[in-house]
Specification:
Blueprint lengths: L8 E3 L4 H18 L1 H5 L7 E3 L4 H7 L1 H9 L6 E10 L4 E4 L12 E8 L4 E8 L7 E5 L6 E5 L4 E7 L5 E4 L3 E6 L5 E9 L4 H5 L2
Antiparallel strand pairs: 1-10, 2-3, 3-12, 4-11, 5-10, 5-12, 6-9, 6-11, 7-8
Helix pairs in contact: 1-4
The structure holds fe (ii) ion.
Length: about 200
């Protein structure tokens, strides 16, 4: 039996009224903070876009501030990325806590923006008893080379459709696939420093 984590994903259970306002604000913010996606959405490659002006993002998302303040984690909101995936360029299986990271990235709070109901985020663990094969990959955001365990050594242990705000354990192997062809999905991924691990564990 492959050893599993206590949890890989958890619904954030935010106020639904606020969530619909946040979704609208995120959709309106995309053309401003990420014009490449807004104008060419079906050609954008599966990637993690983290070159986002956090101050501008906060300005464009007043409801996000309200929601995060309600649960006491607004001051820990440190940065935000956009995770895009297409049917021909899924988000490859990776972990966010690659060796050499300055700050550990254990959890992320993801919000659906476009077509997330058409995508599946899956989590993986190393198969029991397999010979570990390493492959050379490139970090999604920076393109820096890093070493990871080959996909063939990994077993899918859990999955979630991010149809509503969801906490993800991003220090576990994970990837995103699209269920439908010719679809681009995009989600916002909020990162916290320090990370509110006790809060999320208690959900
Ligand atoms: Fe990730």
């Amino acid at each position: 039996m492959t050893t599993k984590a206590v949890w890989y994903h958890k619904r954030a259970n935010l106020d639904p009224e606020l969530v619909s306002r946040i979704t609208k604000e995120l959709q309106d913010a995309i053309p401003i903070i990420y014009p490449e996606f807004a104008f060419n959405k079906y050609l954008v490659r599966g990637n993690f876009h983290d070159k986002i002006d956090q101050d501008l993002f906060k300005e464009l998302l007043p409801s996000m501030a309200v929601a995060l303040k309600q649960i006491g984690i607004y001051d820990m909101w440190h940065r935000t990325g956009l995770v895009s995936a297409t049917s021909y360029q899924p988000v490859k299986i990776h972990r966010d806590d690659i060796e050499g990271s300055v700050n550990p990235k254990t959890i992320a709070l993801n919000f659906p923006i476009y077509n997330c109901e058409e995508s599946i985020t899956s989590f993986y663990e190393i198969k029991e008893g397999v010979e570990i094969i390493e492959t050379q990959e490139r970090e999604i955001s920076s393109g820096k080379p890093w070493t990871k365990i080959a996909d063939s050594c990994l077993e899918e242990v859990d999955s979630v459709v991010i149809s509503e705000p969801t906490w993800l354990r991003v220090n576990k192997y994970h990837g995103v696939k699209l269920k439908m062809e010719k679809t681009t999905r995009i989600a916002a991924s909020l990162r916290f420093r320090p990370e509110p691990l006790d809060y999320v564990d208690s959900l």
